[in-house]
Amino acid sequence: MSTIANDPIRAYIVSEFLAGEDAEDLTDDFDLIESTVVNSLGLVRLISWISETYSIPVDDIPLEPAAYRTLADIRDFVGRAAPAAV
Question: What's the Cα-to-Cα distance from 63 to each of 32, 44, 54, 67, rounded to whole Å?
């Protein structure tokens, strides 16, 4: 598991959606959507953050929740869309 120090995606999710929780408790396969950690408004915030942080045009970012279900899913997308980022 990545530590928060070298995992900006995990750090963002913990700071924005799980304030006060230990980042190390958020596993790569935890379902952020089903657990409602990330709801529809949170998904918009997450997409905006990904676009800004990784310089990925919003038009190139999928809007379906399945692309953001887990940390692993998010990392996979960012790795494909902005290979130098991950």
Answer: 15, 9, 16, 8
